[in-house]
From TrEMBL:
Protein name: Phosphoglucosamine mutase
Ranges for domain Alpha-D-phosphohexomutase C-terminal: 379-452
EC number: 5.4.2.10
Domain of life: Archaea
Length: 466
């Protein structure tokens, strides 16, 4: 078996273990890695959930079997969004959790996320411990009379929905009678977000709301290009907001009332500004792929930014370490610590609605108040085994050209062309691709830079035989 993840760890990538089901991520592998996970949790009680992918039930059963065989007890949470599972682990005080999901990856992929007792995916160092158990065959296999037991979970989803709602001003939101186009993208946020919004007094207009592991509506990743149909529904229905989610519901991308889709660093910056003003300052944690506007908003309101590698696991753990006010990802991930230290699409939506209600403003107005930057995000197919070499060569080429202001290597290569313009080239930790991000004060300039570096990356991959 060769997993589709090699750039971060031997098994674990940016967000768990992922691969194409049946070839890279098999049922046999799932049983063995679950034995290793169960050994790591040392006969603990583990909450297990899964998303709506067609392969998820098979993988879940395999994982449950491995956990039971290691001596762990399993609490079966069924189908639910990742943030609901994470909330359930901490709220009901389980020893850990396992979520079967590949988030935004294409439907043929699936994955396994391991969650610690604090509801956060286990840290990189803990992932290494699980990998060591796996590769060195230090697996605990329970005797016939020590095999774990399985039971159904309590109503995790209801408890989770109650928790989201408890963190916002329900009366203020309900008074606005917001009309919201909710687009789960055929993912599992369909099980939670509509219920949250109806309890907040919103009129819900559902789109792509049938859970379907083939993701027939617009795919599992909510990019502006994929959300053109949602934007049309928002305009046609005269809705106040469109809210779209990735496959497992931990990220939200918003469409304003004019039908303009905004990347997550804009919606994140709106929440950041609101919280910094309320708290009088604080630490904002965000990956190097995020817009410079995050830093500008922080500086303008007494805040400080801590930049990290890309990946929600890293953001969560750094946010916890520094007692941060908020975590933000450009892909729509928002980490609100009073709720939980992980990204959560439903919580993000509730916060945006609360801010709109308190300010009495449309989303377009709130976005319009932010510093203006334009972002372009492209990707280039790249075999996993070539990723490291490609990044090394593109960094060497950029340094040799000597045309940039500075170079940062927190994650991949980020080259600053001037104080307001940058390009980031990094290897995806979840797919066999190289990602190219560019930002500038003018849209045309961002597009030009991104396309130029996409060509350079493609040429390097070709030269390496990819």
């Amino acid at each position: 078996m060769r997993l589709a993840v090699t750039s971060v760890g031997r098994l674990f990538g940016t967000n768990g273990i992922r691969g194409r089901f049946g070839s890279e991520l098999t049922v046999d592998f799932a049983v063995k890695i679950a034995l290793a996970i169960g050994t790591y949790f040392n006969q603990g009680e583990i909450l297990v959930g899964h998303d709506g992918r067609l392969s998820s039930p098979a993988l879940k059963d395999a994982v449950v079997s491995g956990l039971l065989a290691s001596g762990c007890n399993v609490v079966d949470a069924g189908m639910m969004p990742t943030p609901a599972l994470q909330f359930g682990v901490k709220h009901f005080k389980y020893d850990g959790g396992v979520m079967i999901t590949a988030s935004h990856n294409p439907p043929e992929f699936n994955g396994i996320k391991v969650v610690g007792p604090d509801g956060i995916e286990v840290s990189r160092s803990e992932e290494v411990k699980i990998e060591t158990i796996f590769f060195e065959e230090k697996i605990r296999r329970a005797a016939w009379n020590e095999v774990g037991k399985i039971k159904e979970a309590p109503d995790v989803i209801s408890a989770y929905i109650d928790a989201v709602i408890s963190h916002v001003n329900v009366k203020r939101i309900a008074a606005q009678n917001f009309k919201v186009v909710v687009d789960p993208g055929n993912g599992v946020s369909a099980l939670t977000v509509p219920k949250v919004l109806r309890r907040l007094g919103c009129q819900v207009i559902p789109v792509n709301d049938a859970v379907d592991g083939r993701f027939p509506g617009r795919g599992p990743e909510p990019t502006p290009a994929a959300l053109k149909g949602v934007a049309e529904v928002v305009r046609a229905s005269k809705a106040d907001l469109g809210a779209s989610y990735d496959g497992d519901g931990d990220r939200a991308i918003f469409t304003d009332e004019l039908g303009v889709v905004h990347w997550g660093d804009k919606s994140g910056a709106i929440i950041e500004k609101h919280l910094l003003k309320r708290a009088g300052g604080g630490i904002i944690v965000t990956p190097v792929s995020s817009s410079k506007l995050i830093e500008e908003v922080a500086l303008a309101h007494g805040g400080k930014v801590v930049w990290t590698k890309v990946g929600s696991v890293t953001v969560s753990h750094v946010l916890k370490e520094v007692s941060g006010l908020l975590g933000i990802e450009e892909n729509g991930g928002v980490f609100y610590p009073p709720h939980q230290l992980v990204r959560d699409g439903a919580m993000t939506t509730a916060l945006i609605l609360e801010i709109m209600a308190e300010r009495g403003e449309k989303l377009s107005k709130l976005v319009g108040e932010l510093p203006k930057y334009y972002n372009v995000k492209l990707k280039v197919a790249c075999p996993n085994e070539l990723k490291r070499n490609v990044i090394e060569k593109i960094e060497a080429a950029i340094r040799e050209e000597g045309k940039v202001l500075k170079i940062e290597t927190i994650d991949g290569v980020k080259a600053w062309i001037d104080d307001y313009t940058w390009v980031l080239i990094r290897a995806s930790g979840t797919e066999p691709i190289i990602r190219v991000y560019a930002e500038a004060k003018k849209e045309e300039r961002a597009e030009e830079i991104a396309e130029a570096y996409k060509v350079k990356v493609a040429q390097i991959i070709k030269s390496l035989g990819g």
